[in-house]
Design goal:
By secondary structure, this protein is of the alpha+beta class. The chain is built from five helices and two strands. It has a two-stranded antiparallel sheet with strand order 1-2. The longest helix has 20 residues. The chain is elongated, with a radius of gyration of 18 Å. The chain starts with 9 loop residues before the first helix and ends with a helix. The C terminus is likely disordered.
Length: 92
């Protein structure tokens, strides 16, 4: 499974989201107070979100589900199932 969007932990991903969305919102909301200089927060927000808010949301879902779902493809047909590792953990 590719972890291009996922983070090491949900906490880390959430912190990136707070910083990213806070910087994006702040860059626009602070224009009346500090002027166009507030737009310097835009790159901070984009870097924290790794380029786009949608990618951050996909990464959050991937981070939460990491190791719980397993994708397998056979004869051109792919399925998604709960991994054996997760079932043993839940049963314990």
């Amino acid at each position: 499974m590719s972890d291009d969007f996922a983070s090491k932990s949900v906490f880390e991903h959430s912190v990136r989201g707070v910083v990213g969305f806070g910087a994006l919102i702040g860059s626009i909301a602070l224009i009346p107070i500090v002027g166009p200089i507030s737009l310097l927060l835009l790159p901070v927000g984009l870097v924290a979100l790794r380029g786009c808010p949608t990618c951050w949301a996909i990464g959050l879902i991937k981070t939460i589900s990491r190791g719980r779902l397993q994708r397998s493809c056979d004869s051109g047909r792919c399925t998604l199932a709960v991994s054996d590792h997760d079932t043993h953990r839940v049963a314990s």
